[in-house]
Amino acid sequence: MNEMVTIPREEYDRLRAAAEDLADLQSYDRAKAALGAGGDELIPSDYANRLLDGENPLRVYRDLRGLTQATLAERADVNRVTVAEIETGRKQGSIATLRALAGALDITLDDLTE
Question: Against a cut of 0.85, is the pTM above it?
Fold first, then answer.
């Protein structure tokens, strides 16, 4: 059976705003729980801004971890020149190489490719 309720527009707008606030609070709680469980990582704003400005993610995450190109290459078992070429955009890198680099940086493959 169709039931209809009529409320003033002002009340409708207030209820919608409250529902949006609740959704925001729930998202915050989920993010906070994931962070507390070690499922997420906070990235300092300087590094986040570099990513947003379009800087190569490999370089940004390598800097965030405090690694040299040589150290990262050694940990990922790839050539240091390959790391440099990916960071400068001369090469894209194969999926296997990017996966190895992401693993060495403790990030996801998506973090390097998005």
Answer: no
- Model confidence pLDDT, tens digit, residues 26-78: 999 988 887 788 777 788 999 999 999 999 999 999 999 999 999 999 999 99
| Number of compact structural domains in the chain | 2
Residues 51 and 57: beta-carbon distance below 8 Å: yes
Burial 61-90 (b: 16+ CB within 10 A, else e): bbebeebebeebbeebebeeebbbebbeee
33 and 56 co-located in one domain: no
Same domain assignment for residues 62 and 97: yes
